[in-house]
Amino acid sequence: MPVSAAASAREILVRLHDVMASRTPAQAKLNQVVQIIGEAIGSEVCSIYLLREGVLELFATRGLAEEAVHVTKLAMGEGLVGTIAEDVEVLNLDEAASHPDFAYKPETGEDRFHSFAGVPIIRRERAVGVLAVQHSEPRKYADVEIEALQTVAMVLSELIANAGLIDAAAGAGARPQMTATIRLSGQKLVEGMGSGFAVYHQPRIVVEHTVAEDIDAERRRVYAAFDKMREQIDRMAREAEFGVAGEHVEVIETYKMFAYDEGWARRINEAIDSGLTAEAAIERVQQRTRQRMRQIDDPLLADRMHDLEDLSNRLLRIVSGQMGTAAQLGLRQDTILIARNLGPAELLEYDRRRLKGVILEEGSLTAHVIIVARAMGVPVLGRVSDVRRQIADGDQLLLDVSEGSVLVRPSSAMEEAFDAKLELRQKRRAAFAALRDVPPVTKDGHRVTLMVNAGLRDDAAALDTTGADGIGLFRTEFQFLVSATLPQRERQQRLYRDVMEAAGDRPVVFRTIDIGGDKALPYLNTEAGDEENPAMGWRALRLALERDGLMKAQARALIEAGAGRTLHVMFPMVSEAWEFDEAKSLFEAQRAWLGSRGRRLPLDVRYGAMLEVPALAEQLDLILPNVDFLSIGTNDLTQFLFAADRANPKLAERYDWLSPSILRFLRRVVEPAREADVPVGVCGEMGGRPLEAMALIGLGIDRLSITPAAVGPVKAMIRSLDRDAITAEMARLLAHPVRDMRGALGAWAATNGVELA
Ligand code: PEP
Ligand code: MG
């Protein structure tokens, strides 16, 4: 036996290289391969099983009975060979027959052999066959022998794919074992349904050439790729707290650790020494790491593994020169996009007509990309684990975020059921669309103001499709988030003016930028440093009042854009009344300055405060006299009231918007506002849910700003509701709350004929 794995594999690879290059038919090549391997490692048996029509078929052997070739077949998971393929794991046994999975196949004559070692032949991370060796005397195979077999298996995977010996689907992209229908679940990030074919945002590179022609050249290629990758990672780390692609700082730190890990680079070099190309060597090392990690059941390590996978794929893309994302390649059909995470700008690069949904391995409700996806109307399922092992590029997917799941490779019956549900949804939507021109008036004649939330230029179109009364929350930070550089005042002004023009005489409430904390901008050094609790950090108005250059520019952009109209401005995260006063003064100073220079000004400027920090509720007497309106941001309010991070999926279901704490808190704000004659609305996600909206109306709130898709369902609810009746019911329930307020309100709605979509 040769002394090292590299030397051992190299000797075999040199001989295999000639076989691969020869013009002999594939079967003859396989027959030669088993001879070469058998001789090289001195084993009595060497066999190759390949996956065809879903079963593993003995394709070539040296040492087993010839009659068994193309006759012996094992199902996935059957016998030692089936187990290796199913688990994509190595088996190394000194006594094969004593293994619980051993299945005796008499036609092979294998009962003479005691020891057995088998490795999976892997393509696109799945086993497409098995390479096995056997000896008559009981012995365990040395690590170097197993290593050599694995390296050879890589080369075999190229040979059999090129020769079309495995299931056609495997060559075409789908992984053969990935044929079963499965359902993966995740967190509901953006509601909706979509059907399409799986496309990975960063396409995985399939290694096409495995045997090196010139080892030194391969080594140089890998060195250069490492240099380039390190440069990229260093740049990402420098680009402030968030990378351009949206990766979090911790991920970047881990990338950095791996990128400079000498061990990793050394192992890749060793694999090249054994005769592999740079691509094959990177993949080989990755396979080995995957296998080791699978044996260690540690979630922390699994996360790290994820990072290394990403980096390894990055290195592969650099070395093979295939750097584009799926967006740059263009979507050719209805697509469900799969990514670990995305930045908002990356999402916006995709063709919206073909993008039917997004699956993220990470993602949380407040991530920028989610806000943008919601605005684009693209459903998103987040925190779906094990995606790469379960979904192949091109797989058909049915994404149903309302169920929190995605069906992978659905049966035709499932497809029919999905289509029926989709049709029902569309019918319901059509019915809601028919409500476009009817006003949101309760049965007893109270007009509710229904507005939409927006943030992108195109969102203004939602006003016409929904018949909403205006834009109740325009998140101006979207423009900053999707831009690679700080949007200059002129660009801001143009956007604001376009939106107001599209809205016509319907009001648009512009919220000044809510950035900082977890919404850091890569091009803006906020000096916030590392914050332990960014949601409670230096963000929104806190940052804007201190770094007032940004706020002044925005004020001027808004005031100039609003020339000749009534301009509505609101400030986020007001925690104390003086913060509002200062922000308003800043705007008024800009208005005066512009006026003094003869600029056309708005007819009027109406100033509002968002109430999303509970502390402000204790200063209503101080703020109400100075504001023109209040808008309650229930997303942040809930997280602060319950001390529950709105981005933490573990807490997502724990606290209900219909809990007595929230409802009583809201009542406490609404009553003084009403007495002071200050309009008060809700612009958080809560208002977009019909049952919640019903409760809000029962508390005396008659202005809601919601996601456009919710306008129809909420309007239908309003038109079937008796406001006086729900007001009485809310008073009764809040006097004596029950634990399950949602259940109680749902039951009340049902008995009172309230339409809940
Ligand atoms: C809120 O906090 O409820 C809100 C509407 O603002 P955002 O979701 O943008 O923080
Ligand atoms: Mg908020």
TrEMBL record:
Transmembrane segments: none annotated. GO terms for molecular function: kinase activity; metal ion binding; phosphoenolpyruvate-protein phosphotransferase activity. It is found in: Cytoplasm. Its main location: cytoplasm. It holds the Pfam family PEP-utilizers. Residues 25-170 form the GAF domain. It catalyses: L-histidyl-[protein] + phosphoenolpyruvate = N(pros)-phospho-L-histidyl-[protein] + pyruvate. SUPFAM superfamilies: Enzyme I of the PEP:sugar phosphotransferase system HPr-binding (sub)domain (SSF47831), GAF domain-like (SSF55781), Phosphoenolpyruvate/pyruvate domain (SSF51621), Phosphohistidine domain (SSF52009). Its EC number is 2.7.3.9. Its cofactor is Mg(2+). Keywords: Cytoplasm, Kinase, Magnesium, Metal-binding, Phosphotransferase system, Pyruvate, Sugar transport, Transferase, Transport. It comes from the Bacteria. NCBIfam families: PTS_I_fam (TIGR01417). This is phosphoenolpyruvate--protein phosphotransferase. It comes from Sphingomonas parapaucimobilis NBRC 15100. The gene is ptsP.
